[in-house]
Write the structure tokens for this entry.
Amino acid sequence: MEWKGVFPAFTTKFTPADELDLPLFGKNLQVQMDAGIDGIILGGSLGEASVLTTSEKETLTKYAVEQAQGSIPVVMNIAEGSTREAVKQAELAAKWGAKGLMLLPPMRYKSDERETAQFFKTVAASTNLPIMIYNNPVDYKVEVTLDIFAQLAEHANIQAVKESTRDVSNVTRMINRFGDRFKILCGVDTLAMEEFVLGADGWVGGLVCAFPAETVAVYKLTKAGRIAEALAIYRWFLPLLELDLHPKLVQYIKLAEQQAGLGSETVRAPRLTLVGEERARILKVIDTALANRPVLPEYKLLEYAD
């Protein structure tokens, strides 16, 4: 498992009858792989995990594993309120063929540092799957501090962090304290290029679901030192990337997928599709970007130092 490169946080595709839309999921996945992504993450907040059944998670994971055919790793997200259930989900993920886990702190309860560390340790000790810790104190109210990471370093399968503190300096803090012990993947779309320059190893992206080629191009060009070319794409991309920072990021990104021909705006209740002024406003952002989509340089075969 290599925690580097671009890992889309996949949306879950639904039919109008509120069932999984596997053909549409497969279409998006194929375009993502053709664009050069390095792995996929299922069942995150963007994937509407809180409204998915365990059976649906199984179906999605097995389908993605089958479609990927070993070319990229499938990572399953775990966001549970109890340690027991998180351990169970880790066991199921391995059974279904996932090659890694993204692990959030306990949901709905604001655990302290001791509890947070113990939660991660218990799950890590229960599985052989490699783990990426999701550090997002803005949305989930629990910060995975450097001192917690120092405790987690004893578990070899805790290997990476999805860095979503919104503080780009945290990349430098992690590297200063731990060197390359933990791979760092940016989890905030609007800070990605900045974090690559500071040494981040990858990008857990949202808008990549609708714009995979542009996302991978920004990552590879930046890592190859072709900053001016990457920056031109990134500046075009920013109004779209800002859609990732809103509580309705699922609706916004699914609408972008639909406009780009890679998905549909169908969501699962209690979420509702956008209407009125809000939908018109978001459509304007998306359609303006599509009308001015940049011509990308050849990026797939770029070489760069790890």
